[in-house]
Design a protein that fits this description.
By secondary structure, the protein is mostly helical. The chain is 67% helix and 1% strand. A two-stranded antiparallel sheet has the order 1-2. α1 (25-31) packs parallel to α11, α2 packs parallel to α13 (289-295) and α5 (98-110) crosses α11 (229-251). It is globular, with a radius of gyration of 19 Å.
């Protein structure tokens, strides 16, 4: 959920990224919501690990932090409006990254219009709105499904990158995307052949969050040409906070919370949020991508353990099957991209190249079209 500062307000810092072979640290921070589920296969394509010892265990630790976010987010979502929970979560994250904000604003003002629009969409959509949807999914459904469905983020990001960044997607991509969608369907519905509108609500909310976080990954990849990881992180949370404040005022959503909830919100922002994000990106530089991909399975596995052992979730047999199929498809895509001489997704090596490629296809004067179609 902070998609992967990921996974998301998937918890304040989950905005971590997940596009197979195309994620970069800054893109990640832009893509996930606070506390949002981590990078599902986002490590693929990050290149060789630097010297200093393997830190696969640290990737697994960070991913497991994303998985336990339901301990705090689930109860909060049932006690308060989703907007209220995410508002306070973003406030904590904004305060924690405040020292990055002034230089970030200075660099943003000097950046291109395309980058400025990308950051606006990342903050308002991929951070604020995505985390509200993710939190609402906990109220509407069980504590496991909203988190496991976030593993679709790399697949969604790849599809968006093909449109926005003009990355080439080969036919082999379908061999991973189709099983993943089947697995997601089985995972989302206890009775997959008898789906009602009400039973689909939680899944649609979770998929909406995954799509917005994936969009943040793609937009952040291009924005990384002009902004740093710290810039994107601080701007994402601050813009998200302002967006939530305005939305709460317009909708007259009550923002008052009890002192008993304050502790859970701080823990949600700190552990599945900033701490998980920092550990994850610190570890990636010392971890081979193939091992990191496996280590990231600690996220859905910890989500399942917490949901079953502590939150009373009882997945059906078909949901367990869907869980296995979805994880196999995502891991398979990551391994294929690492080892195949003809990867399913052909991406530019540099964010500047992606930005230039996308920019060459659009009119500089058409702001609305640029916002929709370009980074």
């Amino acid at each position: 959920m902070t998609a992967p500062l990921s996974q998301g307000s998937g918890s304040a810092s989950h905005e971590v990224c997940r596009a197979a072979r195309s994620a970069a640290p800054a893109a990640s921070a832009a893509g996930s919501a606070p506390g949002a589920p981590g990078p599902a296969a986002g490590s693929a394509g990050l290149g060789r690990p630097s010297r200093g010892g393997d830190r696969t265990w640290l990737v697994a630790l960070a991913a497991s932090f994303w998985g336990i976010s339901s301990i705090w987010r689930g109860p909060l979502s049932r006690q308060y409006p989703s907007l209220t929970v995410v508002f306070w979560e973003h406030l904590v994250l904004t305060l924690l990254t405040l020292w990055w904000l002034i230089p970030a604003v200075r660099r943003l003002r000097a950046a291109s219009l395309r980058t400025q629009l990308s950051v606006l969409v990342i903050g308002a959509g991929s951070s604020a709105l995505a985390t509200v949807l993710f939190t609402a999914a906990f109220r509407a459904g069980d504590p496991i499904t909203p988190q496991v469905l976030q593993k679709l983020q790399p697949l969604i990001a790849v599809a968006l990158a093909a449109v926005i960044l003009r990355e080439r997607v080969r036919a082999t991509y379908a061999w991973f995307a189709i099983p993943a969608l089947v697995g997601a369907w089985l995972m989302a519905f206890a009775s997959p052949l008898s789906v009602s509108v009400s039973s689909a609500q939680a899944a649609l909310l979770a998929l909406g969050a995954a799509s917005l976080w994936a969009a943040g990954t793609v937009l952040g990849r291009a924005a990384r040409a002009e902004l740093t990881f710290a810039d994107l992180t601080s701007l994402r949370f601050s813009i998200g906070f302002v967006t939530l404040a305005i939305t709460a005022t317009v909708t007259q959503t009550p923002l008052a919370i009890g002192w008993d909830a304050a502790g859970n919100i701080v823990l949600l922002a700190l552990i599945p949020g900033l701490l998980a994000l920092v550990l994850y990106y610190r570890a990636l530089g010392h971890t081979p991508a193939s091992r990191a991909t496996l280590a990231e399975l600690a996220f859905p596995l910890s989500a399942v353990v917490v949901g079953v052992a502590f939150l009373g979730a009882k997945p059906t047999g078909s949901q367990w099957l869907g869980f296995a199929i979805l994880l196999a498809a995502v891991v398979g895509l990551a391994w294929h991209e690492q080892r195949s001489s003809a990867p399913a997704v052909v991406v530019p090596d540099d964010a500047r190249e992606a930005l230039a490629t996308a920019g060459a296809t659009h009119s500089a004067g058409d702001t609305a079209y640029a916002l929709e179609r370009s980074p």
